[in-house]
Backbone:
């Protein structure tokens, strides 16, 4: 009977964990975990948010809708 040994053929060598995605690579799918309030200029740590999500400034209490353009740039529109 022949041994059914399978060689180490699993080759997961194409992992790119070290590669950092830039805003342009991700475009409008880019995610953010902080934002600068357009109203009071405070820097707010926030849960992960992306295009179309609402964010709330912890300092002045204003609501904004996040708009991420094709270049991965974040803009905040006042609600
Ligand atoms: Zn604010």
Residues:
């Amino acid at each position: 009977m022949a041994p059914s040994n399978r060689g180490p053929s699993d080759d997961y060598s194409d992992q790119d964990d070290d590669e950092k995605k830039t805003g342009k690579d991700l475009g409008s799918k880019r995610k953010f975990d902080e934002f600068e309030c357009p109203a009071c200029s405070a820097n707010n740590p926030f849960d992960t948010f992306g295009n179309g999500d609402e964010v709330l400034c912890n300092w002045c209490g204003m609501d904004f809708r996040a708009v991420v353009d094709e270049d991965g740039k974040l803009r905040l529109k006042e609600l």
Residues 34 and 45 are 4 Å apart (CA to CA). Residues 48-79 form one domain.
